[in-house]
Specification:
Number of strands: 0
Number of helices: 14
Radius of gyration: 20 Å
CATH superfamily: ABC transporter involved in vitamin B12 uptake, BtuC
Structural class: mainly alpha
CATH topology: ABC transporter involved in vitamin B12 uptake, BtuC
Number of domains: 1
Largest sheet: none
Order of helices and strands: HHHHHHHHHHHHHH
Shape: globular
Strand content: under 5%
């Protein structure tokens, strides 16, 4: 077995380990002795209720982490830049603005995934269209444009908060920071995750070629315009689904794909499934920390990912541009 497949096997074991940790951790501790009766159906009603709530939350965290990690991997190969990810490029912000606006207008929560997708797609097209200069873009220009667009979406979000009622503000703030305590659209996540993964994995070979440059990929027969559009739509769908489920959670798409490349997973036929496993497990562990660090008070999981992601981003930024 090659080193890459050993790493993939290790990540596969990490998934049940992270979920098992999530099931045992919380303000009400459930030990292995209490967990086994629940699994066999012989536990009391309170323990069973706590167990089911933690199972649902762990599954939500896994789906969201997997989607954000895959979205980051796709955007990074498109730009050939490890600093690209949905949160930094403003895609999460666009999805968040449209979702908040729809909620304030009284639109049914069942339309949340659609409004989030529209916002993410508009933000994606906006960033890439502004970044174009003389028919092409540079990664530095696109990255800076994304940061500015993200700041603009942040200003719109502040405006929406300022006109919201007092009863709405607290829930909206938690949602904006990434809150899994009231995660919804789980069924949508179960539907979108396998579809986007299969679609992404189906273009793994073109992604491998694109990682070496657009000219080389085009010389080997790939249609760059179609491939670019597929990446746009897939990244927008993944980000929109994650945002509609639990708000804006940053840095997952930055940390996970880059870490996987550092440990040797560069082939997208292996990187994409690894991103699903590692991204999902990472957010499950981050959410477990969010629930337990100040228990019984809960911290938005977006705070935990930001505390981890900001120093990682600065290190990557220094490595990317520090020698120039």
């Amino acid at each position: 077995m090659t080193r890459q497949y050993k790493l993939l096997s290790l990540l596969l074991l990490l998934v049940p380990a992270s979920i098992f940790l999530a099931l045992l951790s919380g303000s009400s501790n459930i030990g292995i002795k209490e967990l086994l009766p629940v699994l066999s159906g012989g536990s009391d009603a309170l323990t069973k209720t706590i167990f089911m709530l933690r199972v649902d939350r762990a599954l939500d965290a896994f789906i969201i982490g997997a989607l954000l990690s895959m979205a980051g991997a796709l955007l990074q190969v498109l730009l050939r830049n490890p600093l690209a990810e949905p949160y930094i490029l403003g895609i999460s912000g666009g999805a968040g603005v449209f979702t908040l606006a729809a909620l304030l207008l009284g639109v049914s929560s069942g339309w949340t995934p659609l409004t989030a997708f529209v916002g993410a797609l508009i933000s994606t097209l906006l960033v890439f269209s502004i970044s174009f200069s003389n028919g092409k873009w540079t990664t530095e220009r696109l990255l800076l444009t994304g940061i500015v667009i993200a700041a603009g979406w942040g200003a719109v979000i502040s405006f929406l908060l300022s006109i919201s009622s007092q009863q709405q503000i607290q829930g909206m703030l938690f949602w904006l920071m990434g809150d899994l305590s009231q995660a919804n659209q789980t069924a949508t996540g179960f539907f979108i995750l396998p579809i986007t993964f299969i679609a992404s994995w189906a273009i793994a070979r073109p992604l491998n070629l694109l990682a070496h440059g657009e000219q080389q990929a085009a010389a080997l027969g790939e249609n760059i315009k179609i491939l670019r559009m597929m990446i746009f739509v897939l990244a927008a769908a993944m980000t929109a689904t994650a945002v509609s489920m639990a708000g804006s959670i940053g840095f997952v798409g930055l940390i996970i794909p880059h870490t996987l490349r550092l440990i040797g997973l560069r082939d997208y036929r292996l990187l994409l499934p690894a991103a699903v496993l590692a991204g999902g497990s990472f957010l499950v562990v981050a959410d477990t920390l969010a629930r337990t660090l100040l228990a019984p008070q809960q911290i938005p999981v977006g705070v935990i990912t930001a505390l981890i992601g900001v120093p990682v981003f600065l290190v990557l930024l220094q490595r990317q541009y520090g020698k120039r």
